[in-house]
Amino acid sequence: MALLDPSSTPPAAPRTSSEFLSIVIERIAHPIFVKDRDYRFVFVNSAFEKLTGRSADELAGKTDYDFFPRSQADFFRAKDTEMFTSGETIEISEEPITDADGQQHVLSTTKVPLRNDDDEVTHLVGIIHDITPLKEAQQALLESKVELERRVEQNTVELKRTQRQLLHKERLTVLGQLAAGLAHQLRNPLASITNAASVIENRLQDDRSSDSRIAIGIIKEEVQVANQIITDLLDYARVRPPIPQEIVLRDLVESVLDGFSIPTGIVLRRNIPLELTLVVDGDQLRGALRNLVRNAFEAMPLGGELRIVASLEGDEIAILVSDTGEGIPSDLRGQVFDPLVSSKPLGLGLGLTTAKMLAENQGGSLTCLDPLEGGATFELRVPLEAAPRSSQVF
Questions:
Q1: What's the mean pLDDT in 105-132?
Q2: Are 110 and 127 in contact (CB under 8 A)?
Q3: How confident is the prediction for the chain on average, in pLDDT?
Q4: Tens digit of each residue's pLDDT (9 = 90 or more) over 286-319
């Protein structure tokens, strides 16, 4: 074996080329080993000792089966046999090996045949590249990629949700502004119609014609319907920031019910513990409950049962408003709180929308629960002390 510069001799140079070659192999950073045709180790360098955690003396004359797990030894033996049989270099891009401490490494190994003067393969020379750090880096990169994709997907979902919310709020803003304008424009002609109907009714006092009285009654009834629609529009358009005050829930519920004439055939049941008090905007909570109660009455034109039950759950009060009406059509259940969505022929679909906005204005929530025995059940949750959320204010 020749030096790169034949004229130079390194200090303390080995006396023979064999000794020099041994030193070079010993200094190579990559693990190297030599096996004979009986698959026994006959030579290993320091890098191989370090990799396996076993000394050259310990390895000498032994086979893979003396040190490594059976599955690994079987794989090593198969590749060794393949090289001895073919007499060709074998490249193994990836294989595991377990060292003396039980630590697993990933190797890339080249197995080269060593021949004698008669061109017979007498030994196998293995040259190893420990690619464990590379595999760990690849795994870390893969995990980072998966995590990045997860975050991108999560952020995309969140972005879409935010976009939907912004679009929804924008539509609500426009609708609220339009509702407020229309309400003011319609109230005046409705007042004129009511006055005119009263004048006609007074003029017809001596007229016993049932047709005339029916016509006047229809006019007044439809004016009331129109006024209620306008009231819904104004309530929807004027959701203001809350003004919290301490209230007794039972008193508030009773004041809501006192504002209604209970329809014939409807049974009212309520369970509101007297000790339930909270700090919220009483007018807004009253408005939300009023809409829920009115919605329940309208859902039971032939009679039924209205139940109002309240309970303390943690730092919130849960109020259930249930009716035994026909319930909410399945195709509308997911849109029940959207404006302009209603199962009623003349409904604007603002009652539940407004109730939800009023509840959320207190830091609470309003949800439509899945029906168990028909009818509809709404759960209004309000914190014991109002924690206002961002509300829609016009």
A1: 94
A2: yes
A3: 82
A4: 989 998 999 899 889 888 999 999 999 988 999 9
pTM passes above 0.70:
no
Ordered by where they begin, the domains of the chain are 17-130 (3.30.450.20), 132-238 (1.10.287), 241-383 (3.30.565.10)
Task: Tell me the residue type at 138.
Answer: Q
d(CA 141, CA 215): 80
* Structure tokens, 3: 């030096």
Rounded-to-integer distance, Cα 301 and Cα 111, Å? 90
Give the side-chain half-sphere CA count within 13 A for 358: 25
Under the banding of pLDDT at 50, 70 and 90, the label for residue 59 is very high
pLDDT in tens, 216-225: 777 877 777 6
Which two structure tokens, joined as six digits, stand for 97? 């090996």
* Cβ pair 240, 257 in contact under 8 A: no
pLDDT for 8: 45
Highest mean pLDDT range out of 171-180, 221-230, 256-265, 341-350? 256-265
In this model, does residue 167 exceed pLDDT 50? yes
CA dihedral 318, 323, 324, 326 (to 10 degrees): -110
